Every structure is written in structure tokens, then in C-alpha cells.
Amino acid sequence: MAVFFTSDTHFGDPRVLRIDKRPFRTIPEHDEALIANWNAVVSADDEVWHLGDFALHVRPERIDELLGLINGRKHLITGNNDGAATLAAKGWESVQAYAELMLDGHAMVMCHYAFRTWKNMGRGWIDLHGHSHGKLKPQTRQFDVGVDAFDYRPVTLETILGTRRRRMAVKTD
Questions:
Q1: Residue 132 CB: number of other CB atoms within 10 A?
Q2: According to the model, what pLDDT value does residue 172 have?
Q3: What pLDDT, in 10s, does the model give residues 38-88?
Q4: Distance of CA 24 to the CA centre of its chain
Q5: Is 57:12 a contact under the CB 8 Å cutoff?
Q6: Interior CA angle at 135 toward 107 and 38, to 5°?
Q7: Distance, C-alpha 125 to centroid of its chain
């Protein structure tokens, strides 16, 4: 079993094509691509932490349908665009506004929003967030896990941490 992180899928939300300039012509194309990308990396036994803004402008039945189409045991950290139907959907293992997790020797806090400071920040804890669609300059040990920052797919902690290391290596070369 692997653990993945993602956020800001915005299934059904036409604004992401315009505002975030996602490379899809239509929302059905967008949604199909995100589902395919998700299932290409996540298996049924994997765990996924979705850090908010799952779907918007869709029928409640569509939210249940989407959760059934994507692999893994899914946890939702609520975002500003997650309505009552998303929160009440039966496909979530858990729903909360904030969570803490220890994974592979790394302690982390998770929220839809990026924190300026967070619990045990000075002790090496990591802040995982969404909301900023890859546009916010991160602080040390702070990572936007949104689909806009990671090729429209969920990613592992190893991938998240490796991305920052690659950036640091490029700056020192």
C-alpha cells in the first residue's frame, strides 16, 4: 500500500480551464484525464489524501460517481469549494478540515490552505496544502500538492520531497 496526496481536482468546474489555464478543451475531457491520471498511479489498496476542492458545479450523484471511478481509500481535507454534497459523499474514509500524519519518518500537517507557520515547524514538520494551484512561493518544508503543481495526478511524499531537492540542486549548479 502506498500513500498519495493531491488537491484541487475541481471536477466539473469550468473555471479551472480559464483561470488556471489547464490544458484541456472541455470539462468532460478534463475530468476524464484527471481520472485516468489518478488511476494510472493509485491502486485500489492505496490511500489518498485529497486536500480540498474535489468537485464543483456537479450534481450530488456525480460526486458519488467520481469517487467510485477513482482508485484508493480516500480522505478529504475540506477546501473552500467543497459543498455539502462533497462532504456527505459516501466514498470518503474520513472528512476533516485539518489532519496530522506521520509517514516514512516525516511528520506533517495537512490543510487546504498554506500556513505561514504550523505545528512543530521548527522541529522539521512538513506543511502539505492545496488552494494556490501551484502559484504560491513555498516556504521551507511547505508543499502545494495540487494537481496544477504535479502533472494533474496524485503524488507520493517521496515525489513531493524529491521535487524540492531537484529545485535546490539546480539552484546550486
A1: 18
A2: 40
A3: 999 999 999 999 999 999 999 999 999 999 999 999 999 999 999 999 999
A4: 19
A5: yes
A6: 65
A7: 18
Mean pLDDT of 18-40: 97
DSSP 45: T
Other C-beta atoms lying within 10 Å of the C-beta of residue 162: 12
No. of helices (H) and no. of strands (E), the chain = 5, 9
Amino acid at 71: N
Q: How many residues does this entry show for the chain?
A: 173
Cell numbers 500513500 correspond to 3
Phi, psi angles (nearest 5°) of residue 40? -70, -25
Task: Give the distance from CA 144 to its chain's centroid.
Answer: 8
CA distance 31 to 169: 34
78: nearest Cα among 32, 149, 144, 129:
129
**Contact criterion met (CB below 8 Å) for 129 and 111:** yes
Q: Is 170 a residue whose pLDDT tops 80?
A: no
Alpha-helix residue ranges (DSSP H) falling in 10-156: 15-18, 27-41, 60-69, 84-88
